[in-house]
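Standup notes
- DV: blocked on the single-chain target, sequence here:
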Amino acid sequence: MEKIIQMLQACANPTRLRILSLLSDGPLCVCDLVAVLGLSQPTVSRHCAVLRHAGIVSAKRVERWVHYSIDRSNAEFMGTISAILAQIAEDKLIIEDRERLNERLASGCCSARSGRDAS
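- DV (later): unblocked, structure below
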């Protein structure tokens, strides 16, 4: 029960929900998350660390950046994550985040989705 409590607590933060929403379509470099969220790199990394320690995301270092992806190995909890993400999908901030991400990915940045494997 402790693990599920830790996972739910990790999701109970607006910034971390925004991060999960952005990661739901695939891995991203921390620099992408920083640019889209408009937060500092240490702040984004701290939020990602909470999600990683809860077992919700995984991280892989590629050169000087860390690429994050949703850890789909916990199938039972992934259903909960999917339900949460579906509930927030139409939120104005989530939609704006996705628009900013699409613009960033189109610019050919260093994204994990631009040809680098982050799994």
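- Follow-up: The chain has one domain: 2-109.
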